[in-house]
Amino acid sequence: YMKGVKTPRPLTHDLFMTIIGVLGASLLRVLIYKAKDGIFYSYIYLKKDEEIIRIDTRTSDAVGMAIRAECPILIYESILEQECLRISNEERRHPEESDEEAEDEKKRDLPRNVTSMSLEEALEQAIKDENYELAAKIRDRINSRNQNH
Questions:
Q1: Per-residue DSSP letters for 49-111?
Q2: Sign of the dihedral defined by the CA atoms of residues 42, 106, 115, 37, in that order
Q3: What pLDDT does 96 receive?
Q4: Any idea what DSSP says for residue 3?
Q5: Buried b (16+ CB within 10 A) or exposed e, 105-123
Q6: DSSP label at residue 115
Q7: How far is residue 131's CA from residue 10's CA, in Å, rounded to a whole number?
Q8: How far is CA 129 from CA 116, 135, 136, in A?
Q9: pLDDT per residue as tens digits for the range 35-89
Q10: SS3 of 13-62
Q11: How far is Cα 67 from Cα 117, in angstroms, rounded to an integer?
């Protein structure tokens, strides 16, 4: 969907999400694990039955999929500091985890020093990556969130 208008054919991120669902998996979260020379590196974490699958991906693709799946986008605090990015306390999200989610966290070996990336930062990154389709979707999500506040 682009600005509430359905596209005649599925876009790439929609296709990825459909494939993941058809294969019986779900997107759990995105982790931005490294930044080097202005390029951010990311993993997506899928869950299929009891198995956790980690896949290396471009950050712009990972963010596009995370938005569609409405799953968390995590980033190491050290990367935020290194890239001089700041997240306010209100934007930091550490939702209460169920026992199952805590167990998933252990299986994925994700450290605790990760932080949810704000939509504003995701928008900035999408623009930097010249992914204007994704940027428009993030902008619409931000506008929707701001209207609900």
A1: TTEEEEEEEEHHHHHHHHHHHT--EEEEHHHHHHTT----TTT---PPPPHHHHHHHHHHT--
A2: negative
A3: 46
A4: T
A5: beebebeeebbbbbbebbb
A6: E
A7: 17
A8: 19, 9, 13
A9: 888 889 999 999 999 999 999 999 999 998 998 898 999 988 888 777 776 655 5
A10: HHHHHHHHHHCCEEEEEEEEEEEECCEEEEEEEEEECCEEEEEEEEHHHH
A11: 12
CA distance 41 to 1: 26
The Cα 108–Cα 114 span in angstroms is: 13
Q: How large is the angle between the packed helices 59-69 and 12-22, nearest 10 degrees?
A: 60
Q: N- to C-terminal Cα distance for the chain?
A: 23
Q: 25 to each of 18, 99, 129, 131, 142, how far by Cα in Å?
A: 10, 20, 28, 26, 28
- Would the pLDDT of 141 be above 50? yes
Q: What are phi and psi of 4, to 5 degrees?
A: 80, 0
What's the whole-model pTM score?
Answer: 0.58
How far, in Å, CA of 11 to CA of 62, rounded? 14
